[in-house]
Structures are given as structure tokens and as C-alpha cells.
């Protein structure tokens, strides 16, 4: 559905994307993750035709990006692009028209899309008078009003409260169910973990790795991560070193990778003699994998 081939982009002397290739199949939800400035929005701007690549190309539904392919594509940008002095209904009617939505379907689609983002009672509200979260949801309604085959969501739930976030997640699941392909960027790793079939990690313009969560777990050769609080970290680190455990810090806390699952007593035995205040075990999560990919330990 979306075929991004060898994209490279520079802005002046700064290279922001290098040889990025990714392919999304119909009905797939793909999460593009990476730190601030990694090149996620630039990738989106390239595939929407807002900017042109120096090298590489983008195919949407097998066609080179053109005015025609624009109607296949719905985009929710990071900054809402809404007409503040128009109503919600007028915004949707305007964008629907631009994207070729037949006038016979327009009022039905406006109602369906506003309902999908829980704004059905706001059809006549002026956008400038809506809360930030409501404007974010309207922006999502705009992205889907013309029933695109490919929806690109740039940080769709940033600024939303938890219930609104659940609603957006549910909407993304429905889009997938309808066979719509979704490319999303997010800094919320639990959002990516819950929604995405595959995830790609972008860092300094390079796509470092991509795959399903279970495929990405292979980057951390551990069954569990154990986090330890102790008044003598040096002693815990020394013990862990004797067992060959890989050491990390997550949110400042000392942690080790366990290559195999251990009984609690076996685990405690490894740190015998260390003044342990607490010990917590967790499976390998997307957060661990993300940090491994994007940080330099
Ligand atoms: N029009 C532009 N002119 C010059 N530099 C740009 C332009 N657009 C983006 N950049 C630079 O390209 C790099 C990638 O930016 P981009 O917005 O794609 O990152 P991002 O991964 O989306 O970041 P964030 O998570 O903060 O949204 C940054 O260094 C940014 O300053």
C-alpha cells in the first residue's frame, strides 16, 4: 500500500534522512518511532508530497506520488491545520471537497467522522472555540473524511486525555479492520505496543531496525529485566558481572538482563551479600528495545 524506497533528504548542509526504505501492506498499522529530530515528520512530509526527496521515491497503492494519489491519503499533521473561524462541519466539508469526496456523500461522511471522534454534537461549533483536545480529534476526522486507503497520523494522541486517547486507539483499530493502512508516529511506547503490527526505529535519519514486537525482542537477548534498588550499587554490579549479566540504567535505576527466567530465590541468591532494598522483574518491553536502539549506553 505504501512503498518508500531509498529516501534521502538534506536541508542545506544537514542530512536528515538517509536511505530510508519501508513498505506497508494493506490493513497494516506501522509505528515509526524515534527521538525528537529523528526525521519522522520529514518522512511524512515526503510521502504527502509537501517536500521532495533528494534521492528515492514513494509509491502509494503502486503509483508514484501525484495529485491522484493524494486522494488515497489522509494525513493528520503534528500541528492541526484547521480553519479556526469555520465550524467543524464546514472544515470537514471543505477538506472533503478538496480530496474529491462526492457532494452526495458529504453530509453523511461529516456526521460519521464527527461521531467517530465523539464530536457529533459539535458540527456547528466554531473550531477556535474548541479545546485543544477537541481540535486534535477534529483533525483526525479531517484525515479520514474522504475514506482514504492510507492514513498517516503524526503523534495523533499528543495532548489528549486518557479517555480521548482510548477513543482514538479504537478508531485506529476500526480503520485497520476496514482494511485501511495506518502509518503513525508517536512518543508513547505503550501506544505503539498496543496498536502497531510492526514498528520501525528511526535515529538521525537512519531506519535502524523494523519488525513486529516479537521480532524486535531479538535485539535484547534476555527473558526478563530485573531492576534493583540497593544502597551498594557497586556490590550489585560486581555480582552481576561475575554472572555475565548485561547492565543497564532505566530512568536512573540499576537493571540487569536475565538470559533465562529464574525462581525468585535463585535470583536473590545471585545477589546474596548485597543490601537489596527492592528487586523488580519485568518482561522485555518496547521501552527497553527502544532505548537499546536509540540511546548510546
Ligand atoms: N524545513 C526544514 N528546514 C530545515 N531543517 C528542517 C526542516 N524540517 C525539518 N528539519 C530538520 O530535520 C530534522 C528532522 O526533523 P523532523 O521534524 O522530521 O523530526 P521528528 O522525528 O519528526 O521530530 P519530533 O519527534 O520532534 O517531531 C531536524 O533536525 C529538523 O530541525
From TrEMBL:
Lineage, top ranks: Bacteria, Bacillati, Cyanobacteriota, Cyanophyceae, Nodosilineales
Classification via InterPro entries: AAA+_ATPase (IPR003593), ABC_transporter-like_ATP-bd (IPR003439), ABC_transporter-like_CS (IPR017871), ABC_transporter_ATP-binding (IPR050763), P-loop_NTPase (IPR027417)
Family from the record: Belongs to the ABC transporter superfamily.
One Pfam family named in its UniProt record: ABC_tran
Domain ABC transporter, chain residue ranges per copy: 2-229
UniProt keyword annotations, A-Z: ATP-binding, Nucleotide-binding, Transport
UniProt cross-references to SUPFAM superfamilies, sorted A to Z: P-loop containing nucleoside triphosphate hydrolases
Name assigned to this protein: ABC transporter ATP-binding protein
GO molecular function: ATP binding; ATP hydrolysis activity
Amino acid at each position: 500500500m505504501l512503498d518508500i524506497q531509498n529516501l534521502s533528504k538534506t536541508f542545506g548542509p544537514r542530512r536528515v534522512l538517509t536511505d530510508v526504505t519501508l513498505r506497508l501492506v494493506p490493513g497494516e498499522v506501522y509505528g515509526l518511532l524515534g527521538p525528537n529530530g529523528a526525521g519522522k515528520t520529514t518522512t511524512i512530509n515526503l510521502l504527502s508530497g509537501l517536500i521532495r526527496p533528494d534521492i528515492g521515491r514513494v509509491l502509494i497503492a503502486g503509483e508514484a506520488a501525484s495529485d491522484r494519489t493524494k486522494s488515497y491519503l489522509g494525513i493528520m499533521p503534528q500541528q492541526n491545520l484547521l480553519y479556526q473561524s469555520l465550524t467543524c462541519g464546514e472544515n470537514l466539508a471543505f477538506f472533503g471537497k478538496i480530496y474529491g469526496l462526492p457532494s452526495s456523500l458529504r453530509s453523511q461522511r461529516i456526521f460519521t467522522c464527527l461521531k467517530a471522534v465523539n464530536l457529533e454534537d459539535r458540527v456547528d461549533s466554531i473550531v477556535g472555540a474548541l479545546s485543544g483536545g477537541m481540535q486534535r480529534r477534529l483533525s483526525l476526522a479531517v484525515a479520514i473524511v474522504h475514506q482514504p486507503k492510507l492514513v498517516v497520523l503524526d503523534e495523533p494522541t499528543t495532548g489528549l486525555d486518557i479517555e480521548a486517547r482510548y477513543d482514538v486507539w479504537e478508531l485506529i483499530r476500526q480503520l485497520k479492520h476496514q482494511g485501511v493502512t495506518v502509518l503513525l508516529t508517536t512518543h508513547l511506547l505503550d501506544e505503539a505496543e498496543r496498536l502497531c503490527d510492526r514498528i520501525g526505529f528511526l535515529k538521525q535519519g537512519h531506519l535502524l531496525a523494523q519488525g513486529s514486537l516479537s521480532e524486535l525482542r531479538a535485539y535484547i537477548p534476555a527473558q526478563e529485566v530485573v531492576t534493583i534498588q540497593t544502597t551498594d550499587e557497586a556490590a550489585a554490579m560486581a555480582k552481576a558481572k561475575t554472572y555475565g549479566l548485561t547492565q543497564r540504567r532505566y530512568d536512573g535505576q540499576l537493571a540487569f538482563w536475565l538470559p533465562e527466567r529464574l525462581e525468585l530465590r535463585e535470583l536473590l541468591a545471585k545477589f546474596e551479600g548485597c543490601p537489596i532494598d527492592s528487586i523488580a522483574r519485568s518482561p522485555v518491553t518496547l521501552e527497553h528495545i527502544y532505548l537499546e536502539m536509540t540511546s548510546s549506553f
